């Protein structure tokens, strides 16, 4: 089934329903002529309003109908833990314990919602901001945060949790994910690859090249674009005059444009995309419209390029507050459950702090360790030369 897309709105209903007749149906919002601009989040598919009110969507509803209270609480718990982990990362960097940190506050719903939809065999390829994806997949934050301290490469076993190392090169992981998906396809596997990237990465050649290959070979890969409105200091409306999700159909890839601050919509959209891939229908593209509440990284000052009013408008659409309001109204969460989650967040923060503050930086020459499995004479010579070089900086006390 081929999905069509116009500049006014994504036909997310027709894509999800999956029939030929549905493919020709225009979503209701198209008739209302909603703006194709992405900064207001008004032309997206959602299941929860900003105040937590549940709204029906016949296309997305079936994909979350089986979510149990336990699963709903797990979504909420991981979102809260991700936010606390993020706050701790910022604090530790300000204290000099981390070299850098890329905050994800405000983007918890898209990260946790999509990650919870994955199966154990699926493989995630994150950017440097997907802390929630790593947490949901089982990475130990007290370990992988050492990568941000410069102590380790990725600090988690990618093979055990099926998550590639966080990618710092913008958009490169889209190619890695597509290559992995093509390999899984040739192995006859039903596992799916997922590439996570931001709106800025869609202007990179790597992302576009990955979509060409994915479409040409029908690779089982899902492209998840977290449109957080800013590529560092460049607003999305400069590089994307129309919704980013509208680009994917040009590659022959169906797409959905969803409210990235609505965790239920994120789960539903990801389940739809994964189902397509497992049935051999190839790649899908999700544009999750969200907002980066903090700086691009801790080396950035967002007050230089965006207004307080803009940040406050998006704060009213907070993904955790809206989900809590919904769960409390449904009787799924109460004060006791909220206190338990808060205690878990405190415990996680304490573990992360202890791991970072107690970390012992290895000697510089250990950079040569584990490069080869067997002794290597040229490498040994380089190591000796480096040790001699370092010795030249030794003080009298060191000697």
Key traits:
399 residues; two-stranded antiparallel ribbon; 16 helices; alpha/beta; globular; single chain; 7 strands
Task: Summarize this entry quickly.
With 399 residues, the protein is α/β, with parallel strands linked by helices.
What does this structure look like?
- There is one protein chain.
- This protein has 399 residues and is an alpha/beta fold.
- It is 43% helix and 8% strand.
- The protein has a 5-stranded parallel β-sheet, sandwiched between helices. The chain has a two-stranded antiparallel sheet with strand order 4-5.
- Helix 10 links the parallel strand 2 and strand 3.
- Helix 4 packs across helix 6, helix 4 packs parallel to helix 15 and helix 9 runs parallel beside helix 10.
- The N terminus is likely disordered.
What characteristic shape results from the CA principal axes?
globular
Q: What structural category do the secondary elements indicate?
A: alpha/beta
Q: In which range does the helix fraction lie?
A: 40-55%
Strand content: 5-15%
- Please tell me how large the radius of gyration is: 22 Å
Main sheet properties: 5 strands, parallel
Strand order of the largest sheet: 1-2-3-7-6
Mean pLDDT: 89
By oligomeric state, this entry counts as: single chain
SSE ordering = HHHHHEHHHHEHEEEHEHEHHHH
Give the beta-strand count. Answer: 7
Q: Give the end-to-end Cα distance, rounded to a whole number of Å.
A: 73 Å
pLDDT < 50 stretches: 1-39
Q: Count up the helices.
A: 16
């Amino acid at each position: 089934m081929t999905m069509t897309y116009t500049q006014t709105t994504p036909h997310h209903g027709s894509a999800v329903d999956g029939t030929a007749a549905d493919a020709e149906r225009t979503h209701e919002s198209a008739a209302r002529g909603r703006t194709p601009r992405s900064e207001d989040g008004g032309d997206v598919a959602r299941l929860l309003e900003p105040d937590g009110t549940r709204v029906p969507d016949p296309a997305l509803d079936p994909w979350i109908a089986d979510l149990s209270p336990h699963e709903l609480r797990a979504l909420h718990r991981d979102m809260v833990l991700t936010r606390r982990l993020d706050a701790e990362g910022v604090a530790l960097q300000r204290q000099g314990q981390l070299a850098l940190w890329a905050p994800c506050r405000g983007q918890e719903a898209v990260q946790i919602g999509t990650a919870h939809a994955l199966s154990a065999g699926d493989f995630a390829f994150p950017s440097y901001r997907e802390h929630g994806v790593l947490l949901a997949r089982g990475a130990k934050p007290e370990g992988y945060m050492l990568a941000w301290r410069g102590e380790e490469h990725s600090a988690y076993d990618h093979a055990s949790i099926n998550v590639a190392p966080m990618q710092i090169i913008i958009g490169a992981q889209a190619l890695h994910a597509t290559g992995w998906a093509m390999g899984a396809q040739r192995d006859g596997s039903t596992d799916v690859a997922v590439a996570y990237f931001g709106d800025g990465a869609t202007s990179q050649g790597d992302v576009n090249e990955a979509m060409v290959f994915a479409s040409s070979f029908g690779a089982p890969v899902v492209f998840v674009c977290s449109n957080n409105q800013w590529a560092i200091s460049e607003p999305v409306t400069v590089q994307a005059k129309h919704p980013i999700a509208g680009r994917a159909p040009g590659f022959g890839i169906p797409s959905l444009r969803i409210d990235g601050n609505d965790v239920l919509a994120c789960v539903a959209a990801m389940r739809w995309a994964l189902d397509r891939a497992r049935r051999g229908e190839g790649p899908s593209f999700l544009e999750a419209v969200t907002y980066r509440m903090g700086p691009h990284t801790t080396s950035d000052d967002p007050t230089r390029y965006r207004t307080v009013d803009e940040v406050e408008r998006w704060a009213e659409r907070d993904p955790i507050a809206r989900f809590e309001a919904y769960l409390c109204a449904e009787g799924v969460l109460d004060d006791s459950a909220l206190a338990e989650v808060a205690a878990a967040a405190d415990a996680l923060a304490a573990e992360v702090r202890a791991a970072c503050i107690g970390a012992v930086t290895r000697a510089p020459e250990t950079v040569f360790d584990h490069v080869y499995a067997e002794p290597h004479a040229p490498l040994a010579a380089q190591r000796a030369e480096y040790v001699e070089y370092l010795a030249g900086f030794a003080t009298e006390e060191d000697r």
